[in-house]
Design brief:
Blueprint: H1 2-20, H2 41-74, H3 91-120, E1 127-134, E2 137-142, E3 147-151, H4 155-160, E4 183-186, E5 191-197, E6 202-206, E7 211-215, E8 221-225, E9 233-239, E10 251-257, H5 259-282
Length: 287
């Protein structure tokens, strides 16, 4: 009976470990239990730190529970074990079980501190974008270029989410996760984001980037991203701070382009800004 329980417990533990360690890129199923590896330099470091701590915790759990189960089985009453009522003190044992956890914490702390330092190191950035949260949209300003625009919920999603719209949300691609104008950044480039808010607290979060920062009125938070050169594409996120009744309707979409494509896009945007300014200047004012 006890051996059967041991085998069942071991099988359950292995199943849990296998599920949690499932590939992070899985689109559905048990892979969603784990955090994604992501597509940025920082997200991979954060994932590596996460998995290192996870396996340390698994090892500690196996050791502690294994020892506990062994003690329960080996010293059970049916085998004639008798409880020792005398308190036995061992200074040596106390030193050992104090030093071992301290050593484990140090082993965990050193790589964690390195990742934290990397997260805050925004030096040598090649592009700076100011991100401002509003109820319920985002504003992106490419500092030093004159390019800026608002990013709001996509038209199809906005229509489907209306009460009694008659539109089945399941027929809308990327329902509540699409916008009219995404943030555009170049791959292989260290991009600094200066994040703030105009009204209430928001939070800018894209899971594949491995980072989340609060957008706080009157305060500027800083984060940086550097997407791998071969990871161009579209990535989606959401406001991660409850910011009002339409909190669920201000998604984040980021288009990651190659550097040449981004330069072409930025040049076209600059030209559009100049054209709009020239048109405004040429329009006679009504006095």
């Amino acid at each position: 009976m006890i051996r059967t329980m041991q085998r069942s417990g071991a099988a359950l533990l292995l199943s849990v470990v296998a599920l949690l360690a499932a590939p992070a890129h899985a689109d559905s199923g048990w892979g969603l239990l784990n955090m994604p590896v992501g597509v940025t330099e920082l997200s991979k470091k954060i994932y590596g730190l996460h998995m290192m701590i996870f396996w340390w915790c698994v090892a500690i759990g196996v050791f502690v529970f294994g020892w506990m189960i062994w003690a329960i089985v080996a010293f059970r009453k049916s085998r004639g074990a008798v409880a020792d009522t005398a308190m036995v003190h061992s200074t040596k044992a106390e030193i050992i079980w104090t030093l071992i956890p301290v050593a484990i914490l140090v082993v965990m702390t050193v790589p964690a501190a390195r990742v934290l330092i990397d997260i805050e190191d925004a030096r040598n950035t090649e592009l700076t974008v100011k991100v401002t949260g509003y109820q319920w949209k985002w504003q992106y300003e490419y500092l030093g270029t004159g390019v800026g625009y608002y990013s709001t919920l996509g038209r199809e999603s906005n229509a489907a989410r209306e009460l009694q719209s008659g539109i089945d949300p399941r027929t809308v691609p990327n329902y509540l996760l699409d916008v009219d104008q995404p943030l555009v950044v170049p791959a292989g480039t260290k991009v600094r984001l200066l994040i703030t808010a105009q009204d209430v607290i928001h939070a800018w979060w894209v899971p594949d980037f491995g980072m989340k920062k609060d957008a706080i009125p009157g305060y500027v938070n800083e984060m940086w991203i550097k997407v791998d050169t071969d990871k161009t594409g579209r990535y989606r996120g959401q406001c991660a701070e409850l910011c009002g009744r339409d909190h669920g309707f201000m998604p984040i979409v980021v288009d990651v382009m190659s550097k040449p494509d981004f330069e072409d896009w930025l040049t076209a945007r600059k030209a559009a800004v100049k054209q709009a300014a020239a048109t405004t200047a040429a329009t006679p004012s009504i006095s």
